[in-house]
Queue: 2 jobs
Job 1
Amino acid sequence: MQNPGDLELTRRGVLMGSAAAVALTTGPFTEPAHAAAKRQEPILSTVSFTVNGKPRRLELDTRTTLLDALRDHLHVTGPKKGCDHGQCGACTVLVAGRRINACLTLAVMHEGDSVTTIEGLGLPDGLHPMQAAFVKHDGYQCGYCTPGQICSAVAVLDEIKAGIPSHASTDLTTPPQATAAELRERMSGNICRCGAYSNIVDAITEVAGRQA
Amino acid sequence: MKFDTPATTNPIDRLKVVGRPTSRIDGPLKTTGTAPYAYERHDVVANQAYGYAVGSTIAKGRIASMDVKAAEAAPGVLAVVTAGNAGPLAKADRNIATLLGGPQIEHYHQAIALVVAESFEQARAAAALIRVDYTRADGAFDLERAREGVTGPSKDDPDSTLGDFAGAFAAAPIQLDATYRTPDQSHAMMEPHATIAAWRGDQLTVWTSNQMIDWATTDLAKTLGIPKEKVHVVSPFVGGGFGGKLFLRADTLLAALGARATGRPVKVALPRPLIMNNTTHRPATIQRIRIGATPDGRITAIGHESWSGNLPDGKPENAVDQTRLLYAAPNRLTGTRLAVLDLPEGNAMRAPGEAPGLMALEIAMDEMAEKLGLDPVEFRIRNDTQVDPEKPDRPFSQRQLVECLRLGAERFGWSRRSAQPARNRDGRWLVGTGVAAAFRNNLLTPSAARVRLDKHGMVAVETDMTDIGTGSYTILAQTAAEMMGVGLDKVVVRLGDSKFPVSAGSGGQWGANNSTAGVYAACVKLREAVAQKLGFNSADAVFSDGVVRSGNRSAPLAQAAGDPGLAAEDAIEYGDLGKRYQQSTFGAHFVEVGVDAATAEIRVRRMLAVCAAGRILNPLSARSQVIGAMTMGVGAALMEELAVDTRAGFFVNHDLAGYEVPVHADIPHQEVIFLDETDPISSPMKAKGVGELGLCGVGAAIANAIHNATGARVRDYPITLDKLLDRMPEVG
Ligand code: FES
Ligand code: FES
C-alpha cells in the first residue's frame, strides 16, 4: 500500500484534470483548439517502487498504467499487453507477492510497492522451477500469455498454501489443496488462446507436488 | 531441390533428433518474458513515437467531414494521418477492404486515422478528440436474409458433382436433410496486431507480428507504391495468429505512414476492442447437408451446400471441401453460395473451410447413424474410401481414418456408450459421449532456407519462416541437427526476416512439412559442399556426432568450414505428386460431456484425439498443437460467437470479455495419440501438418456427445444452455 501523503499530486488535482477531460470529449465543441489543448496538458507525478528488487523512480503522466510504466518506461517487457482491459491476464505481475493485472492499475498508485515481473522470477540462465516446469510440459506455444500464466501460477500456489479458498473449494473449513479443479479455477483469469491449458495444469501440479 | 518422386531412405530416417519429444529451443526465452515481440522492440531503434488507431463507427458509407484540428493541437501530438493526407495508397491483392478507409467506408472499425504522439496516453487522448461526420449507406449485414437471394454457385466457385445426386438422394431408402449453422468467429490471438515502423531515407523497416513474411513485404510495398527491395519485414516472435496475421493489416500500414509523416519511428498496436471488427474473421455459415443411404449403411448420395457472406470481391468460406473427399458415395453434390455482406472482411481462420464444414458434416453423420441404427464409428468405417471419390484413379497417399477411429474407440472405452441418449447419469450430470472424424488436407508449397557452418562446427539456419507458437524454431533445428549430424546445442535458428530466403510461412498447417523440407534441401547442398571441401565422395559421406566419415576416412565437420565458413541455400519445390495423390491428414475425436440435468450447463469431461498425419517431427510440440486446437474446438462448440448487430452492421462483442474463448476451467485433461506413420509422398521429411487437424471435427464430437447425454440435437452453434433448456429430458 502506498501512503497517499507521499504523492506529489493531490487528489483534487486529479479530479479537476479528469473533469476537464470529460467536458472536452462529450460537450459541444466551442472553444478554440489551442485552449482545449491546454487543458489536456498531461499531469505529471513522480512515483517510486522497486521492480524485481531494483529501486526505480519515474516521472509519469498520471494516466500511465503500471503495465505501460514497466513496458514502455522501464523497458521491462516480460509482462504482456493482451487487452489493456483486465480481460486476459497477460499482464499479470506480483505486487507484494500478490498477483494483479498491471493494465488495470495506475503506476502512481504503487508508491513504495515491490513489483515482481516474470524476469524477477528467473532468467534463461537460471529458471524458476515454475518456468522450468512450463518448458518441460510444453505449457505454452506462442509464448505471449506465458509470463502472465507463470506469475499467476506462482501466486496461485501461495494462495493455496495460505488457505485462501476459491469457487472450486469444497468447503471453507478444510485447507484447499492444489487439485486440478482448484488450479483450473484459480488460473481462469489467464487466457491462453493457443490452448496450452492441459499442459499448464500438468506443469503447476508438478511444482506443487515438489513443494509439498 | 525438386521433389517429384516419393522419398526413399535419407538421413532424416535415422531419427536421432527428428521425431523425438524435444523441449522448445525458444522455451527459456518465452518462459522468462525475454522473447521479443513486435511492440516491445526498444532495442531496434531509438526515439519511438506512439500511434493510436481510430476506427470508423459506421459500417458502410462515406466520411462527410473529419475535424482533426483539436487532435493535432493536443499536447504531444506529432501528426494525425488520414486517407486525406497519407498520399496515394494502393490495395494489395490479398486485402479485400482497404486498410486505411476514407472517404469511402467499407466496414465498421475500418481504420480511418492514426494519431501519433510522444506518449501512448497522449495519442489515445487525442484520438478521442477527432470529430467525424458520416453519411451512412444501407448495407447488408444479415446472412439469413441475404441467403434467400443466393441460390446457386458463384462463377468462380462452380459446384462439384458426380453421378446423379438428386435422383439418388430421392431414391435412397434412408435420408437426412438438415441445415446447420456456424457463427462468425474471431481468431482472438493473445498478442494484438502490432508494428514498429522506421524509415531510413526511402528504406522502410517494420518490426511486426506476421505469419507470412514475404506476403507482408510484397503487400506493404504494393500498398505504399514503393519497390519491394525497399521494405524490410522482421517478425521473429508472433504471439499467436491462427490466420489473423496471414496478411498485411492496418497496424503495419499505419505505423509506416505515421513514421513517414513524423520522421520518427512509430509503434502501433491495434487496441483490443478494435481488433475484431478491424481485422478479419471466420465467416458464419449456413450449411444444408443431404445424405441418402441403403439400410445397411452405405451412403449412396451426399450433398453439401454452404452459404456464407463477404465483402464484394471476398471469397466464400469453403465449408464443403472435406465433403468431396471424406466418404465414399457414387452420387455427389457440393457447392458454396456466396452472399455480399458489408460486415468486416471474412478470411482464413485456423482450418478455414474444414473447421466449420466438419462442425456440420460430422453432426449429420451422427444423425444418419442414428437413423440407421448403426454405431457412429462403424457407420464412418463402412463408408471409408482409399481413393478420391470424384477421381477414383487418384489414391490417397496415406489414409488411416479407420485405424484412428478403431484405436480411439478402444482407448476411449467407446463400447461402454449407450446408443440410446439420456441413459447415463452421474449425480446431477447427464453424461454422453460423441465421436467425429477429423480431416484436413496437406498442402505443398515451395520453401527455401540458407544453412551456414562455421569453424566451431556451429550450424545456423536462416529462413523467413515464422514460429507462431507452432514450434518452428525447434523442428527446424532438429532437421538441421539430423542432417548435419550434430546435437541441437550446435544449431541456431533465425526466423521471420525478409532478408532470409522465402519459406512456406505459417498457415494452413503447411508450415512444418514444407519449411523443414526446405531446410533439408539446403542441408543436402551444404553436405555436398562439406564433402567436396574434405575431398570426400558426397554420396557415401556419413554425418554424425560432429564428424564426417567416408570409407575409412573421417574429419571433424568444423574442419570443412575453416575460417571463412561454408553456406548453402536451396528450396524444396514440388512436382506433381500432389496431383497424382490426394494428400490429407486424418484423425478421430472422442469427447465425453456432462450436462447438468437441471440447468443444462455443459461441461467437457474427457477428450481424446487420434491423429494420422505422417511423421511427427516433434511429438511434444505436435501434441501441443493438437490440444490447442481441441481447446479452440471447445470454444467453437460451446461459446464462441461474434454477435452481429444486423442494423448497424458490426460485431457487438468485440473484446475478450464479450467474445468468450475457453479458459482453464473449461478444459479437462486432454489425450492425444499419433499413429506411427510416414508419408514418403509428401516430402523428404515424410511429414504432414497437425495444427489444424486437431480442430477439425472437435465441435461436432462435442455436439454429438451433448445429444448422447440429453437426446437434444442442436444444429446451431455455439451450443449454449438456452438452446437445450426446453428440450432436456425429464429429471427423474
Ligand atoms: S493486458 Fe491486462 S488483463 Fe489483458
Ligand atoms: S501460449 Fe499463446 S496464448 Fe498462451
Job 2
Amino acid sequence: MSATAPAPPGILGQRRLRREDPALLTGEARFVADLDVPGALHLAFVRSTLAHARISSVDVSAALAMPGVVAAFTGADLERDWAAPLPCAWPVTADMKAPRHLPLAVDKVCYMGDAVAVVVAESEYLARDAAEQVFVEYDPLPAVVGIDDALSDRVVIHEELGTNTSYTWELAPDATAVEAAFSSATHRVHGHYVQQRLIPAAIEPRGVVVVPQPFGGEFTVFSSTQIPHILKVMLALTSGIAETSIRVIAPSVGGGFGSKLNVYAEELATLVLAKRLRRPIRWIETRSEGTQATIQGRGQIQDIELAADAEGRVTAVRVKLLADMGAYLQLVTPGVPILGAFLYSGVYDVPAYSISCTSVFTNLTPTDAYRGAGRPEATYAIERAMDALARQVGVDPAEIRRRNYIKAEKFPYASAAGLVYDSGAYEAALDRALELAGYQELRAEQARRRESGDSVQLGIGLSSYMEMCGLAPSRVLASLNYSAGGWEAATVRLLPTGKVQVVTGTSPHGQGHETSWSMIAADRLGVSPDDVEVLHSDTAVAPYGLDTYGSRSLSVGGVAVAIATDRVIEKARKIVAHQLEVADEDLELAGGAFTVKGSPDRSMPLGAVAFEAFTAHDLPDGLEPNLEASCHFDPPNFTFPFGTHVAVVEVDLETGRVILRSYVAVDDCGNQVNPLIVEGQVHGGVAQGVAQALFEKASYDEQGTLLTSTLLDYLVPAASELPSFVTASTVTPSPTNLLGVKGVGEAGTIGSAPAVINAVCDALARQGIHDIEMPATPERVWRALKEVAAR
Amino acid sequence: MRVSITVNGELRSDDVEPRLLLVHYLRDVAGLTGTNIGCDTSSCGACTVHVDGESVKSCTMLAVQADGCEVTTIEGLAFDGALHPMQESFRQHHGLQCGFCTPGMVMAATSLLAEIPDPTEQQVREGLEGNLCRCTGYHNIVKAVLAEARS
Ligand code: FES
Ligand code: FES
C-alpha cells in the first residue's frame, strides 16, 4: 500500500532543486494580478500630489459621470465604513504617540501618495481615466521633510498629538559603567551616519482582489502579502467583518523584503468596498504609486561612540538614534529601530552599552520593515566605527576585529544589552573570508597602486556582522510591547495512500519553503521529499500562522514542521508496536519503514501504517484514528547568524565612479537545509545591501515631493552593475532548536552595506576621506575629492 | 480595431482599443498571464516577449502595432511537456526565487543567446541590463545563461 519511495538518508544539506520552479518558469504560477475573477470591478486611488495640505474639497462628480464608472468615494464618504483605523501592532513605549490613520484621508493629507478618493470602474483603464477626473483642492501647508525639522516642531503634522515626536526609547542597563568606560578610555571614536530612505521595490507590485460570496456573507481576500494570517486578523478588526467570514490567500507573491509585511490602506479599502458594493473588486498597484504608497525602509540618523583601551579593545558603546517614521505608523514602523537597538555592539565583547532612540513623524511615506529591519542599520554603524577605531589605533581593520570578537568559547554569551547569543565562531568566518578574498595580495596591490599614484584606487572593506533572527520568543516580544506572539504552527499528516502533507503557517514569497519543508519532513520520515506536499498561505488551509519575515521561517516554522513530524512518527510507532506485538522501543524507523530491532523481516512501511491509521480497524485501545499531529513552536531564544564579508572596490579619483570589483561573503547560518537556497538568499541580500551602499536613495525635495517615483529615477541595480559573488559558509549550529538552524534571509543585506562603504573609504583614505554618505554615487565621491583638494 | 496576431503559434483575431498595450492584450485578451507587469516606465523587463523573434518589452508596444506579427510568450517556450533548455538551466542553477521577473528574464536570455551564442559574463550582464530582478542578485541568472550557452 506504500506510495512513498524510500529516500537515501541525509536529505538535509542536499542541493535539491526547487519544486516551486516549473510553475514559475512556465508562466503557470498565478500572482494576484493574474487571477481571473468574472465581473470584478477595478479600483483606482486618487492620491495627494502634495506632502502636507488641508483638503478643501474633493469633487468626484465628473468621474462618476463617465461611462463604466460604478462608484467614486472621498475619504469623508467612507469615514464611517472603517471599524478601526489602520493598525500599528508595536507601541514600543507606553506613551508612544500614534496618529489616527485612515485608508483615505479626510481633512488633510500628510504625505505625497496619501489617498484622498477612490474610483470604482468596469476596467482598469476606465478606473484610471476616471481617477484623473477627480478634482481635489488643497490648502498647502509647509512640509516637514528632515528629521531635525521634525524635532523642532516648527510645524506639527498631527496637531492632536501636539508634537512630531512619537516616542523616545532607551536602553541603559548600566549607565554608570558606560560613563566610566568613556572617562577612562584611551581611544574614543564618534561616527555620525545617515541611513537614507530606501524603496523596497519588489518586482511584483502589490495588489489585492476581494471576492464576496453573494449569499454567505463571506469574503475571500487575495493579496500580494507576506502575512496572510496577520492580515486576516487585522482586516477583521479594522473592517468590522467577523474573522470567521474572512479568508485570506496569498497566491504566488513576487518578492516582499518587508514591504508586504503590512496591513495597507488598499487592502482594507478593497474589502470594505467589496462589502459595500457586493461585487468582486480588484486593485493592482502601479509602480509609480507603489514608490509612494508602499512603505519605505531605513530613514535614520545614527550617532555612535566607542570607548576603547590603548590596544583598541572596545570598553563601551553608546548610541543615539533618530528615526524617521514618515507620516503615519504602519504595522511595525516604530519597532524597526528597536529591532536593531540591541545589536550596536556587533560581534564584539563589549562590557558597557547604552542606546536611545527618538522617532519622529515627517511628511513622507511611512517607513517600516525592509530586509534586515534595524539590523543592517546597527551593523553599518558599528562596522563603520570599528574601521575608524582601527585607523585611530593604527592597526589593520582585520586586526581590530580580531582583538574585539567575542571568543568562541564564551558562548552562549550574555551581551551588555541583555541578549543571550546562542553560538558563534566569529574569527573562523573572518579567516575564511580573508583567505577567499586573497587579503594579503589585495593589500599588496593596493600599496602598489597608491605608490604609483594610479588614478583608480583600490579599496578593501570588511564587515563582520551578527544578527538576531528567528522572530521571536513570545515572552521577549511581550517585554518589547509587541502586540502578538512569535511562535509558528505546523501540521503534518500521513494521508491514506502514504503520501505526506505538511501544512505550515509561514508564507513564502520566493524563499522556497515548499522545497525546504518537504526536505525536513522527508528526512525525518525517511521518505522522498517528492512524496511530501506543503500547503501554505491560505488561512482556510493553514488556520494558524504568523507568516514570513525577520528570517524566522526556518528557525521557527521549519522547526515546527520537524517537531510535528516527530509527533506523527511517535503515533505511528504505537500502531506498529500494537500490530506487530512488540514494545515501542523495539522499533526503529529507517527508509520509510518501521522494523523490529534484530528482526529485519518484521517491518511495516509508513504507507501501510497510514492506511491502518485511516481504516482504524486495528488500533491500540484509546488511540485516535489517523496520523496527524500539530506543533505550535515558540522558540526559547532568538538565533544569531553571523559572518564576515569582504568588498573590493575600484574608485576612479577623476570621476568619482565606484566599481564593485569583487565580493566575498562567508556566512554562518547554522545547519543548512538546502545550501542552494542559502546561497541564493545571500546573493540577493548582498545585492540589496550593495544597492543601498552605491545606488539607491528615495530622494525628496524641500516640499516633500518624491523625486524618485519611477524605476527610471530610483536606481535598482541591474546585472551589469554587480559582479558575481564568492560565497562560502561556516557551520555553527544553533543550540536553541532541534534542527540547529539559524536563518539566512537577511544576512546578505546586513553584512554588505558597511563592507562596501568601508571599501570605498579605504580606497580614499590616502586622500584623507574617511566618510562618504550612502549611496556613494560618483557625484558624492567626486565632490568629496574636490573638497579635500580645495583644503 | 481588429488585429490578427500569431501568439505562440496560434493565429488570433481580436477587436481591441487602439490604446491597448501589447502586454494587456496578451494578459487580458489572450489570457496569457505568464507575462508580468512590474513598472510603468519600461524599466523592469518583466513583460519581455518575442515579437517576430526579437525580444521586446511588451509594455512599450501597442497591440495594434503587433498586428500581423508572431509573438512568443513564456507559455510558448516549453515544448511537449519539457522545459525549454533556458528554463531548465534557470532551474538547475536556481536562477529564480519569487519568479516574478523570471518569464521576462528567460525571454530576454533566449534572445540574448540567439544574438551572441557564446557570450562572456560581461556580455550576459550587459545583455540583461533591461531586466530587473530583486531576489537573486543576478548571480545565478548569469550562471544559468552562461551554462546554457556552453551546453
Ligand atoms: S512592465 Fe516594466 S518594462 Fe514592461
Ligand atoms: S526572482 Fe524575484 S524578482 Fe527575480
